[in-house]
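On clarity, I found the account of how folds are encoded harder to follow than it need be. Since the whole study asks how a given chain folds, the encoding of that fold should be made plain. The format is easy to grasp once an entry is in front of the reader. For illustration, here is how one protein appears when written out as sequence plus structure tokens.
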Amino acid sequence: MPWLQAVQPTKGDDVFDEEVDDMQIMQQEWKSTMEKRVKEGYRDGMDAGKADSLQQGFNEGYKEGLAVLMTSGTLKGCLWALKCWSCLLETSSYLSTEIDNLLLAVGRFEENASRSLATSSLQPHPGVLADSIKDISLNQSAAPQEHCDSREGRSSDCCADIKGFPCKRSDGPTSSPPECCRKAQEALLKKLVCRTLSVAKDMNMSEDLINVLQNLEK
């Protein structure tokens, strides 16, 4: 019947075609959204990881730099105070030269320490410290041999010459490089502090300055 054929759907006019098309569009949108979310999550994770690593590196670097350079910075301030005071008092040329040599030594120590911290995040290499000691003459041969008094009033050998800090000896390794570098660094700072304290005592400086230098020795 003509009216029945008119109501029957033809082959190309399926009543579910629109629903199928809508489902495909939704699936494509869902897939695109999920891919976008995955990329965003990966990018956010990378940013968070970088930020966490940077913060951790900053914290470690700040702690390391503070431990290394705070003592040398305080020591340099004391030396400048001694230099200004020596100019006012017109002290002996030996003491003035000693102060200048110590300022030069502390400046080079800070330069080497800062370079080592920036490049390796480790303690300065012992070879760098040994070269610094070798290059910086403190005119010890021209000056009388002196020993610093410890807190108990006894003499110590902290003013003794530092010959170098190799991490290995002929009979085998002594310690790991970080530990060796740390000891070398501490020995050099102790040497500089000790000689500064000796100069301050020779100049009859105030107890406040003497106490500051003695605290740096600890």
Summary: Residues 137-177 have pLDDT under 50 and may be disordered. Strands lie at 168-169, 172-173. The two ends are 112 Å apart (CA to CA).
